[in-house]
Amino acid sequence: MLSLLSILDQRAGQNSEKLAYIFLKDRENQEQTITYQQLSQISKRIAARLQSLIPPGARALLLYPQGLEFITAFLGCLSAGIIAVPAYPPKRNQKISRLIAIIKDSQPQIILTTSSLLENIQLKIKDFLELSVTQFLATDNLNNGEDFEFYAPNISGNTLAFLQYTSGSTGSPKGVMISHDNIAHNSIYIQKAFELTEKSVSVTWLPSFHDMGLIDGIIQPLYTGFLGVVMSPESFLKNPMLWLQAITKHGATHSGSPNLGYELCVRRITPEQQKSLDLSSWISAYNGAEPIRRKTLDNFIDKFRCSGFKSQYFYPCYGMAEATLMISGGNIEDEPVYLNVHSEFLKDNQIVEAEKDSENYQELVGCGHAWQDTEVKIVDPESCLECGDNRVGEIWVSGSSIAQGYWQQEEKTIATFQAKLANTTNERNFLRTGDRGFLRAGELFITGRIKDVIIIWGRNHYPQDIEYSVQQSHKALRLDCGAAFTIEIDNQEKLVIVQEVERTYLAHLNVNEVFSTIRETVALHHALQVYAIALIKPVSIPKTSSGKIQRHACCHAFLTETLAIVGQWQQNQL
Hints:
alpha/beta; 574 residues; four-stranded parallel β-sheet; globular
């Protein structure tokens, strides 16, 4: 199995002038390009400089905006035998508590960034730095005219390549230890599942410091040898049309997004804008977010069918940082798999198929099957016994893509990465994903997170489903910017909704109307009584670096009265 570094050398030698990446700048029609030869030369120059400053096995914190500078710095670290630690660069007026937690946990000996960000980063974090961080290096400012002395370090398949910090709580992020073999195995995995070739073209706007953006958006194009087109997340969020324009212009075959990305395209792109789009080249439109909504897929298909998009292009899949990235996905030519299940039975962890005319059913989207040596089991999280058919349990995974564990956290590594099935001769270690789901005819369905499941009167309710219902209930409520959780009142679990309001509705918001709509919607769709509702300002809800709602942090903010409140309602206050 060839390593990423061997493949880089191979491509630089055989296809030196071939474009490896294009970065689309925020300004219209401006592009930066880099060939395989340039990629190899620049990354080795950075590697040589790192080798002169810190020893192999040391950590380097990478704080870069989206772009080619991050790619060369990341490959430079790998080439030098340095453990890369990708993270987001601190922004103006943004809390940096998660970044400081990453620094304290990984203890990097050097921080890499660009010359334009260097001074700001030094000012932001100088008061928090541990003694391990003694150096800063702007990698875009190295003298290209000088000779450099690079030596190939002793790297094996088990050598750590980078630490992927998970989307955990801000105070205690965990660094997933990804080896060179993990990268190679998951890259082959993705290549086979998506049937990628050197003729493929990808477009990504997903953050490079996040597992999906890094492994699929950056590493996969290099590994398979096709063109990778990169744009910034900020560009997409400001104008989703730019993503589909890039797919059209470059004839992209492989590109994807969390569910929200497709939803934003449906909502914001006008019929007039659509006239310029040609999405017929798009073979694999992957959707790896949780949850994946059939309604979103259907709406996107209906809207962009006239632009050449076909329903079989959609590729729902499942993955996580602890498995390097990809765990399951379907066959590239197949339509997405849907299943309607009775909601009442689902609350009791039972799967009973329902017809569409049933009174209370839930639409689930299949996430494909495992590939190669990856094995997926559905397990009772308490007894560690494998679940029977038509039962929801915790998803356990084993295979060569599973990471080595969490950096410097032995107990959590054992608990998460070394689980074993009870009452079986199967001695394999399994990764406990913390996700709930089930297998049906070989198809994996995800139903929610174990830790976030809301239990009221002994029944399970998935918070993302409640949040979705709330956000669909009124136009003033922001999509994917709400949290549902419970608090204990008089020894009973009570449901609380925290929800952001659209900025355009702030000045003339009828809070009582919104409160009433939310309560009625939750009662109608989930047979639950809401105890409290907090409407908050836009962009104020706690989220992880990858954009997932931090429900526990949100609950804490609610209880400590630190939310940016626009309006609040509580039971018995009417």
